[in-house]
Amino acid sequence: MMEILIRIVCLVVGYAFGLIETGLLYSKARGVDLRKHGSGNVGTTNTLRTMGKRAGAIVLAGDMLKTFIPVLLAWVICHQFVPEMDYLVRLYTAAGVILGHDFPFYMKFKGGKGIACSAAMILAFYWGVLPGEAVIFFGIYLLTRYVSLASLFMYFGFLAQIIVFGQFGFLGMSQGMLIEVYIIIFILTLIAMFCHRENIKKLLKGEERRTYLKRSKNEEVATAAAVATEEPETVSLDDEDLARILASDEDKDQEVKEKETDKITDKKTRYVPPETTTLVPREEVEREEAEKAARLAAEGVVQEADPPSDIADRMSEVFQALHGEKEAVVEGNTILPAGYVKKENNTEGRE
What we know:
Blueprint: H1 2-18, H2 22-29, H3 44-51, H4 53-78, H5 86-102, H6 115-125, H7 130-144, H8 147-167, H9 175-195, H10 197-205, H11 217-228, H12 239-248, H13 254-265, E1 277-281, H14 282-298, H15 310-323, E2 328-331, E3 334-337, E4 340-344
């Protein structure tokens, strides 16, 4: 019963330490959210790609320490009561850390991929596998530059080596405990494959991203710019859409509205009477025009009507949206309030 309780406690304590997401904490402290950049992962690899070598090294060290510390504590405490479970205590505690790192409850169970934690587990479990693991990981990485591929083979190599060392008696454990160790490592290998499922798909398609420790200056500048700023989305609107937006957006600053309207018409949409013009009632002008038309008709002169203007209609709609006028009239390139027209004064000046 005590042995079962020890296993459960080691898992729970390990999971609690695994919840310390070093990558997320460090990036947040630097004003960056790793979940919104690169692969969206909060582990060492995405930190390295997004924030550089120094940040990657810090996160790697943090993730490994959060594995070493609980494993060491569990081993020191449990060794006094059940020394024959030394390897199982280390393995269960490290497994708890990996589960906490990969599946943190406060991040909707979407954490890292647990490779840095797994590396610490391998270092803390049995020193005899270190040379082989180093050759496997760095050999595959240097040949392919795929961190994901090297990480998966690191797990395969760890499982194979532990089986060999265990069966040859190097671990000093009973066969029942050895089988339990093999099963736990096999389950952790499956978890690693599950967390790398997208990487595996990309590897099979030849689309996996390679990771280089040394990046060019242009790449560093581009990455820094992507992290520091987020490009806003751009939406293309036609004139009518923009006019409706302007009409419905009552809180938008007036100056911004005028600038946006200028982009539609390329003309001034707000009329300010210059010194040489005067606004007069439309009825008066229409009466004068009617008299002029009658006079010209009596003289036999035919007037040509001005062709309709689409831009005038759009300018009128926008003016109504901006200034709340029920009607607006366009003359030339000028919008006037309803009921008024522009009349030139006799004095010289500018319009």
